[in-house]
Amino acid sequence: MTQLLKTPFTELVGVEHPIVQTGMGWVSGPRLTSATANAGGLGILASATMTYPELEAAIAKTKQLTDKPFGVNMRADASDAQERIDLLIREKVKVASFALAPKKDLIAKLKDNGVVVIPSIGAAKHAVKVASWGADAVVVQGGEGGGHTGGVATTLLLPSVLDAVDIPVVAGGGFFDGRGLAAALSYGAAGVAMGTRFLLTSDSAVPDSVKQEYLQRGLQDTTVSVKVDGMPHRVLNTDLVNALEKSSYAKGLIAAARNAMKFKSMTGMKWSTLVKDGLAMKRSSDRSWQQIIMAANTPMLLKAGLVEGNTEAGVLASGQVVGMIDDLPSCKELIDRIMADAVARINALGDLRA
């Protein structure tokens, strides 16, 4: 039987293990999310790349596949954020997670209806802000993490956040095994969040050819690029990424405009909705208009790589941890071995006492 570790996070969310599978666009669908939930962790559906009807269907499918708690990751600045929040409440989804922090009124509405609110943050001051607004917990991602990331390593960012707030803190960026979980708990974290490690499981719907591409990579094989969408974005080194790094911003803007049109036709979004989303993004962040336009690159470039398996035309978000991963276990196998290893490490630390 898998050993258990009780933390403020497991008690808050009602899961067996202090392990979170992050909401990765195009990757975290019902299959991966339910497999994580059934293995005792918290699986999170990624909804930013879904239309409202697709999210509705994904929640229904996930509920068919598991009766355990799971979460949905959303953009707080999306033009239909209120409708999505109503959907989570109606469907009794346990956790709402956010990349950009939701405002006080959204947090209050979710909490009043029994939904646990867990924003992801990248600095202690942001953790203090969302905690003051009523967030139940935070995920803090260090610079080692994949996708949008900051410049401070987890080993420094995590303790700075733990010193700043008294709500449960889940550590992300650089975690893949039981050693990492034991280390995070010893810092004072209430759990760990992992993206790349869950992407590289047999339950992930990413094409096998793409998974093999990840498995071949080492610790030096990622780049933090601002040429993908104007924000620091950790991705695997590929010919496309190298070309983007050498390209001018003018070329990037033209590509982004093209991708915005593709995204519009794929999702059936109206131009007015795209503009409204852009204005909301501008209001809720420090991004320039150039970065807002370039943000249209992300969903299409990730879709080409992670869904269509076209590594020549797409980007592959990845944490540095990719260099430490060499297998594709099921979510259950992965979580069981992380827990067994973490408990063994914690016990061994106890034995060090004189």
Automatic annotation (TrEMBL):
Keywords from UniProt, A to Z, are: Flavoprotein, FMN, Monooxygenase, Oxidoreductase
The family database entries (InterPro entries) matched by this protein are listed as:
Aldolase_TIM (IPR013785), NMO (IPR004136)
Q: Name one Pfam family in it.
A: NMO
Keyword Ion transport in the entry? The reply is no
Q: Which GO terms describe its molecular function?
A: nitronate monooxygenase activity
The UniProt entry, under Gene3D superfamilies, shows: Aldolase class I
Which region is the signal sequence? none
Question: This protein is called what?
Answer: Nitronate monooxygenase
Where does this protein come from, organism-wise?
A: Rhodococcus xishaensis
